[in-house]
Amino acid sequence: MLELPGGHFRRQAPIGPYFADFAHHGARLVVELDGAQHGLPTGQRHDAIRDAYLDAAGYRVLRFWNDEVVENLDGVVETILAAILANSTTVPR
After folding, report:
1. DSSP reduced 3-state for 44
2. How does pLDDT run along the chain (93 residues), one tens digit per residue?
C-alpha cells in the first residue's frame, strides 16, 4: 500500500453541500472522475459552481475524464501524486 503524506483519500467524502468523488483532506485535494454529462452546458455550469465552492473551502480540484483513467491510469496517478507532494509543505506530518 502506498503511504501518502498527511493521510489518505476518502471516497464520496462530504464537503459542505457536495460529495467529492475522492478527497484527501490533509492535502486539501479533491479528485473528480467525470463522465459525458460533465461536458454538457448544464454539467459545466454545475461543476463551475461546485469547484468555486470547493476552492473557497481551501480545496484544489483535479478533474479527469473516465476514459482518461482507463486509458492513462499511470498518468492520472502521477498527476494526483504530484498535487499531493506540491501541498506536502502544508500537510501536517
Report:
1. helix
2. 456 767 889 999 999 999 999 999 999 999 999 887 777 788 899 899 999 999 999 999 999 999 999 999 999 999 999 999 887 654 444
Report the candidate in 77, 5, 68 with the shortest Cα–Cα distance to residue 35.
68
Burial of 72 (0-12, 13-18, 19+ CB in 10 A): middle
In the CATH scheme, what is the code of domain 10-86?
3.40.960.10
The H or E element spanning position 46 is helix 41-56
Domain segments of the chain as ranges: 10-86
